[in-house]
# Entry
Amino acid sequence: MCGIVGLLVKDPALRERLGELMMPILLGMSERGPESAGLAVFTGAVAAGHRKFSIYSGAVEAPWDQFGEAALRDLGAGSSVSALANHAVLETAAPPAQVKAWLAKRYPGYHLLSVGHSIDLYKDTGSPAEVAARYAFPALKGTHLVGHTRMATETAVTPERAHPFTAGEDFCLVHNGSLSNPYSVRRKLEPLGIKFETDNDTEAACRFLEWRMREGDSLEAALAKGFDELDGFYTFLMGTSNELALVRDAFSCKPAIVAETDEYVAISSEFRSLAKLPGVKNAHIFEPKPEQIYLWRV
# Structure
């Protein structure tokens, strides 16, 4: 049992309050996922030619000042690092392959969480309240976010197995449920050169969908193929640089609820976590239908 959290603000005036508005939703999912939590937030794109790399050090305190100096020296002028606890966001014009090789050589204990022009990602073990305080979630700003609280049922409780999962650039996925064929999906993708980092079933779904989009599918077309390829019980919530998408499997035994107003779209596993949102009494509230794609754009 896990909790999903999604929020897209339609009103640009609310972008400064994205994290603040999200907090009651995340905390409301604490009982569904007390062991780890994570959040991907999408902001305005960085400068042309630059990307952001979200990095987890694994240590309680990391020497981020030294890391920033090394990045400036090795990855080129204009590289910068903003750090918070054991997470940092590296912005650089260096290509992803160069950054990944540099991290593997210079900082093999660090874990690359996400890559893109808009995405920042934070995830860690601990209760949702602890993780939110550690990374100052209430202060987050942006257009939309995808979050998760995890209660592990099949794999270990570690930061890398926490959600959201990412693949490619500016794409993330969270999952409540259990896939029955993740290893079949892996056997299909690994010969194509797609590498997996964990034994979590959610990673298989994430990499499958990103592969389909990299092959030219839209997110909607990739999800349509996912209904045929991904077997099991699931509610998937996904984010791209300008989209928020939600789907449930054919049986829809994993809960989801949506509240939509002229100002926002909010998604959770239970209505009670949406009850404190402004104007929710007048929201269009509904339960997503089985195998139907719900997609909202910024």
Observations:
- The CA atoms of residues 275 and 281 lie 8 Å apart.
- The chain has a mean pLDDT of 95.
